[in-house]
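FORM 12-B: Structure-to-Sequence Request
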């Protein structure tokens, strides 16, 4: 198991935060996810009935896209879902990863209902050319729900702080550097064609993926030395 995953798990102050942090770290390491993509995940984006499929709302993309995750990551998500607090809504629009502090619990009971009511009111006023409000599940609908639940979600900023805390002394670690390291490991160690690495990183251009390739190997060694083992399910 990657040392980063172990460190992320250890930083949890309770079993629920340990499970959440482990699932987040695995998504970053094995799927080269952006921190914003992880922070925007909703309950509807993953199901135990299709554990190896995850819906992503990516950078610059409006529609949800399905990606494949590893069995190890799916098990981590299942473990997190078993510990996800019952005071957090479990509706399709609710955040998959949520904050766990007392403040989040208070906001879930006090501020979240008001934000959801406002979001639904906004949707009713967003009539399109046909005079109808955005349908449930449409890109605009998801955006409104994301905004409404932002106060209780484990946001991209929280993901950044989690990863930054895992860096060694004198080394700055970030989700973006993990993406660089993941691409490098796939191409250099696993001999994956750059086009396949592009598909994993979900870049629009293979030229972008090439810029992520760290020829010196520094990021690879620093961030994702055992990514191959994780992909193999070890």
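FORM 12-B RESPONSE
SEQUENCE OUT:
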């Amino acid at each position: 198991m990657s040392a980063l995953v172990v460190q992320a798990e250890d930083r949890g102050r309770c079993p629920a935060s340990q499970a959440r942090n482990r699932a987040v770290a695995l998504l970053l390491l094995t799927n080269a996810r952006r921190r914003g993509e992880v922070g925007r995940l909703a309950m509807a984006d993953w199901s135990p009935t299709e554990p190896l499929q995850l819906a992503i709302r990516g950078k610059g993309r409006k529609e949800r896209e399905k990606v494949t995750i590893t069995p190890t990551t799916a098990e981590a998500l299942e473990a997190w879902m078993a510990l996800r607090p019952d005071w957090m809504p479990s509706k399709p629009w609710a955040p998959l990863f949520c904050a766990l502090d007392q403040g989040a619990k208070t906001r879930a009971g006090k501020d979240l209902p008001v934000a959801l009511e406002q979001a639904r009111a906004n949707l009713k006023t967003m009539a399109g050319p046909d005079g109808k409000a955005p349908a449930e599940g449409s890109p605009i609908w998801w955006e409104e729900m994301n905004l409404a639940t932002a106060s209780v979600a484990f946001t991209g900023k929280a993901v950044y702080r989690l990863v930054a805390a895992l860096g060694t002394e004198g080394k700055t670690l970030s989700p973006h550097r993990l993406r660089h390291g993941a691409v490098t490991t796939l191409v250099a160690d696993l001999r994956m064609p750059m086009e396949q690495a592009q598909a994993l990183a979900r870049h629009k251009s293979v030229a972008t993926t090439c810029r992520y390739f760290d020829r010196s190997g520094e990021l690879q060694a620093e961030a994702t030395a055992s990514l191959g083992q994780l992909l193999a399910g070890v």
